[in-house]
Amino acid sequence: MRETCVKQADGRYETGLLWKDDSSLPDNRSQALTHLNHLVNRLQKRPEQYKKYNEGIQADLEKGYIAKVPFHRQKETGWYIPHYGLVSPNKPDKIRRICNAKAPQSGTSLNDKLLAGPDLLGNMLGILLRFRQGAIAIQGDIEAMFMQIGVRQQDRRYLRFMWRQPNSPKLEVYEYQRHIFGARDSPACANFFLQQTAKDDIEDHPNSLEIIQRTFYMDDMVASFSDAITAFTTAKDVKDTLKNGKFNLTKWCSNSREFCEQMQDDLCKPVEELFSKGFHQRALGVYWSLDEDKIMFKAKDRRNLDRKTWTQRKFLSFVSSFYDPLGIISPFLIRAKILLQELWKHGREWDKAISGDKGKAVKDWVQETEQIGTVGVNRLVGGTALGDTMELHVFCDASLEATAAVAYIKTTMNQETTTRFLMGKTRVAPLRQTTIPRLELQAALYAARLKKTIEDEMDFKFDKIFLWSDSTTVLSWIKNFKLKHKMYIGNRIAEIRNLTNTNQWNYVNTKDNPADQGTRGLTATEMTEKSLWLQGPQFLLSSSDNSTTDEQQHETVFLNSAEQKPQATRRQPIDKDLIDANRFSQWLKLRAVIIKMKNL
Predict the structure, then answer these.
(1) C-alpha dihedral over 177, 183, 185, 190, to 10 degrees?
(2) 13, 37, 164, 566: least buried by Cβ within 10 Å?
(3) What predicted TM-score, i.e. pTM, was given to this entire model?
(4) Which residue has the higher pLDDT, 60 or 278?
């Protein structure tokens, strides 16, 4: 990218495609023409979509994203990209043009010839966690991000496509002047020059680069700040920085009316609509209620599901459609994952209808999804004033079917304590049967990793960190350094001790352990904001030192010998007077006794 990069006079970056090698592409003009004819035939049956599709192409032509190829240049070797229209359920009035750069011709495609480039995407989970830190949250979007990166002249002939306008038989050929959505190298190019724009402006806006690296996921900026003034100042600085590279950061929204009024001309929607009851803004795929300042899980309309022909393939696809990166409804989803594992374990065919008890269980769970409705948690998890004390509490549990870990942040200010759900994770237990203590140990390892992720990604400095398990066996494994364990146990204990301090581990009663719900699962009616999974245990609010009174917390547990590594024993020397040689009349008998004694 650096070798082919050119910064134009207006500030826009231009670079070539990231080619793997110098091998040529086959001629795919006839195939692209066939694709176009199929597309036009479909659009002619929907005149309104045909009109909008054509308007999108003409709009891109006016913006300079594409250019018409003269007839005398159409004989040049190049590549024609098949394209098609896609209507999003969230934007039913808009049809989006999708470029299929992976469509093959003679066994190869454009994407096969391109490198993916470096992975410069931010960590989505980390961005969502930091989004929950500050009192003022904001979101912005870069308009047509890929289309802001120019393509060098000699590579544009590989980004051509064909088109016929409504009521016109004339075949038109266009070629992209910018990097396209769908090409393998486009994400790397876009992210690279996004950050390069900030590096070029480091003197005028020194903080913009760090903000971009920590709050951007592709073209979305999702961030939170302590107050509205800081949020507005930062947003303005980043917007001014990116403007230098022809990136237009717009479509702002925030839970602060003050911020929205400052960004009045660049809002994604009018202020009153943003703060209207029931309005939810999408933030990296999750729903965000600006009025209540909550992160929501909002179930899609699933009333048209065909419940008579559920196959394992359809059920897996359906369960995978639930996007819940923070684990808000993990106890509900884990029931479906356990059911899928059971179907797989019994060797059911992927495309055969599920019948019997399993079929009924699948239909019942799918029917429950209609009752999920909207479940939400507070977006803000930390304190907002100096002097607040914050504690991180991570709970873990396991059963024969699943393991779970869930984290909360406890904030205390002026003797007032609040507990906020941060995130949770659930996993099905491995197919290979194992013991409950081993599964509990695996859950403890997940909790340790979750704690490490939270510490690494969030800017909070926690005053105290607690990890909780209801398995006294696991706690004794972690805290007892004298015991020697077999490899499975020893490796996991070593990682847990590396990620956590053994003094951070505590015992919790099963009835107070919210992770227990993640292993048992919850029904749709139980999966509410008042569930133990989302509220956390009450003792966090009532106990100042967060210790339990259960004597088992400090009890020494005698472990199953099967989980311990056999200890080597030292053979003691035989006492010289142990055998009286005078009592033996034959040398051979005396020798036999001595040999036998030495082998004891």
Answers:
(1) 60
(2) 566
(3) 0.87
(4) 60
